[in-house]
Amino acid sequence: MAEKMALAKAINESLRRALDADPKVVVMGEDVGKLGGVFRVTDGLQKDFGESRVIDTPLAESGIVGTAIGLALRGYRPVVEIQFDGFVFPAYDQIVTQLAKMHARALGKVKMPVVVRIPYGGGIGAVEHHSESPEALFAHVAGLKIVSPSNASDAYWMMQQAVQSDDPVIFFEPKRRYWDKGEVDTEAIPGPLHKARVVREGTDLTLAAYGPMVKLCQEVADAAAEEGRSLEVLDLRSVSPIDFDAVQASVEKTRRLVVVHEAPVFFGSGAEIAARTTERCFYHLEAPVLRVGGYHAPYPPARLEESYLPDLDRVLDAVDRSLAY
What we know:
Helix content is 36%, strand content 21%. The chain has helices at residues 7-21, 45-49, 61-73, 92-99, 102-105, 135-139, 152-164, 213-225, 244-254, 269-281, 305-308, 312-323, and strands at 2-6, 25-29, 54-56, 77-81, 115-120, 145-147, 169-174, 181-185, 197-200, 205-209, 231-235, 238-240, 257-264, 290-294. Strands 3-2-4-5-7-6-12 form a 7-stranded mixed beta sheet, with helices on both faces. The protein has a 5-stranded mixed beta sheet with strand order 9-11-10-13-14, with helices on both faces. α2 links the parallel β2 and β3 (54-56). α1 runs parallel beside α7 (152-164), α3 (61-73) packs parallel to α4 and α8 (213-225) packs across α12 (312-323). The radius of gyration is 19 Å and the shape is globular.
């Protein structure tokens, strides 16, 4: 039976199911236990599963991930929380030089079933180091899977699949969407973790996005429809690997592509998508692939973040420019 729940609640229910199904699953992080996390994503889990399964850690991100690596070597499936996106960098060394490399270093004999949960992105009026979008930094590292759900159903099922993965998964949670509600069927059969999905059919142009920007792209498509334009919205869902076959299929139909993400455009994931799409769809494109994202500047104070983040007008402007070719 489908149930309507917020994205944060969907992750909570998914973690609860994973903890209940496998005694080797453990949840770790700063304030994930008694407090239930700063966004209450892990609320109630320590009460129900105990302090040895849902563990409040010291404020030491490198230690959190390093401990998770050790637990994974002993057969556990740790799910660790980095409290905010900007706090992940003390753990960056552990993630990219140990977690990502262990499987290859051991010639495939060692598995690394670790999930690193990272609330990311802006839109909540937070202070410095609390609104970063560092997904491209991790996508550049071989050995890591990078995913980001845009809705409650995907949040539930993608977390299930991440926990079951024998490879490390960086699970970016769009914090501005934590309270968005959607239908979740906990008995459904989910599609592949890294498969993109068309969430709105269109014929004139493709909008490709993931995580927090999918909802914005749907709003852009609604606005464009009032002007007689038919925009297709593609939820990429995964940043590494990227479902380029789905991108290609959509672009071959619409012949135009605009990629939208919160992270800076400069060296962002949209650059790789634009390059690959140009290589694969050169003779189908009727306009260059355009990108809309953050600026190549430190994330601004809360009063300026709405000027920094992509919004309806900025994406519509890119749509206009693409259709003008």
